[in-house]
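Example record for the data management plan.
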Amino acid sequence: MTETHVRLVRAPNPSPMTHTGTNTWLVSRGNMVAVIDPGPDLPAHQTAILAALEPGERIGAILVSHAHLDHSALAPSLSQATGAPVLAFGPVGAGQSALMARLQAQGLTGGGEGLDHSFTPDQHLADGEHLHLGCLRIEVLHTPGHSANHLCFATEGLLFSGDLAMGWASSLISPPDGDMGAYMASLRRLMARDWRQMLPGHGPAVEAPLTRLQDLYRHREAREAEVLAALTPTPADAATLARAIYRDTPPALLPAAERNVLAHLLDLADRNFVTAPSPLSARSVFRRM
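Corresponding structural encoding:
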């Protein structure tokens, strides 16, 4: 397969969190075209996806990286229009770590990051599984962190990275569906591979995937160091720390920054670097140990 077998249809949903819109990738040609991330539930976007097919082509599978509305919401409509099954790791919460499941059971709630609670795939995919769609072979990689059920897809050196790794921004990690420890582990896993190109869920293609993955990893390490430094000597909650650390962030994006800081704090608490009264919540005050 060559890059001419990969086509991009960008959804018309630009925002500070989605950049220029959600990237819907059409992979392969013929009667087994795979759609990766159908995108938001917008009739105009479905029309554009179908219009991108050449005469005689057919969508054979709809692959969803994760159950956020800007990636998964169009899946039922597109499936109904084409007859193609929807494939994903699972619904919201599938793949959640024991730590995040425990915190959620204790009352920790998300930050309104657009979870698609109605999403139910026709087929559940497993980590390491290989899909054979005509002459196309796609490897499934379970890469939790941005969300518990997040998948990346790989074929012939191309990494379809969803929202785990992008070129234009770092990912939102919002517990309990987001998990900083899992996110860092997923980055390490991807860094161990040799990728030709990274095709993310938002923004342009990344031509130097390893460099970008390493940059994202170092960025999170630096944020962790900032969180620990800001907790010396004064205990604080995530909102206070976000305002101290993200000094140049527009006010509209501070809630997302708070969720990222909370994700760092929960990961640091799990690793015994910080502590807070139980049960943990978004308003918990953390202190260094």
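Summary line stored alongside the record: The two ends are 53 Å apart (CA to CA).
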